[in-house]
Amino acid sequence: MLGAARVHITVELGYPSDIGTQCAAVRREVTQWLRTWAGMEMSGLTVSVERLHSVYTRHMDQERVQ
């Protein structure tokens, strides 16, 4: 391995959903990507949820754009 990386990722997620499960999936994907493509290990990974999108909000936003 080449080294270690500390990463902070911000995501927007659908709601309602299992936010913990979605964040864990992001951690797994990023960790795997770093190992595979960059040859690095993860020394720290923070996943922050910036925004939640509900089905109802998305529908309302689309109506406003039209």
What is the rounded Rg?
Answer: 16 Å
Shape: elongated
Helix content: 40-55%
Order of helices and strands: EHEH
- Overall mean pLDDT stands at 83
The helix/strand class is alpha+beta
The residue ranges in which pLDDT falls below 50 over 5 or more consecutive positions are none
Description:
This protein is 47% helix and 42% strand. The mean pLDDT is 83. A two-stranded parallel sheet has the order 1-2. It is built from two helices and two strands, in the order βαβα. 0% of the residues are buried.
Label this structure with key terms.
2 strands, alpha+beta, two-stranded parallel sheet, 66 residues
How does the SSE layout of this entry go?
Layout: E1 3-15, H1 19-38, E2 40-54, H2 55-65
Parallel strand pairs: 1-2
Short summary:
The chain is α+β, with helices and mostly antiparallel strands and 66 residues long. The chain has two helices and two strands, in the order E-H-E-H. The protein has a two-stranded parallel sheet.
